[in-house]
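Subject: for your reference before the review

Hello V.,

The reviewers asked for a structural picture of the protein, and I figured it would be easier to keep everything in one thread rather than splitting it across files. Below is the amino acid sequence we used in the manuscript, unchanged from the supplementary table.
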Amino acid sequence: MSDQINHDHRPRRASWTHIALHVKDIEKTIAWYERYTHLKLLQRGQEMLGYNAWLVLVLAQFFEGKDPFAPAQHPPMAPFAHIGIELPTREAVDEVAARASADGCLGFGPKQMPKHVGYICMLRDPDGNNVEFSYDQGVYEKAREVWRV
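And here is what came back from the structure prediction:
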């Protein structure tokens, strides 16, 4: 292992940076997340194991025979496990649900849940991972309070 430093900026304390998902088609998955979420491609790469893309959400498509976790399977986040994105309006949840319904990737349509969950819908990405879109869930507000941002 090298002591080489590759980056100039580091967090001042432990900081959540990403979630990583195994994907079957990296191009299709990048396009899906850019269509349905606010995430945009930050960087991409290719190494001996396969392709990678960083959108804060990290995507990895391993080359045939190069999966370092084989023979383990890579099940999608489901049925409850999910990525959560809080939207600014109830109408924004309805809009993303309508687009997903037209595209065939709506897991379940908009629904008012208990107060701590809010108004939500659930989409499935190209690999079957659940992505929840919510309004009035309160996570954003609480994170700002606790993290002082």
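For the response letter, the relevant points are probably these. Residues 90-103 form the longest helix (14 residues). The chain has one domain: 19-147.

Happy to draft the paragraph if you're swamped.

O.
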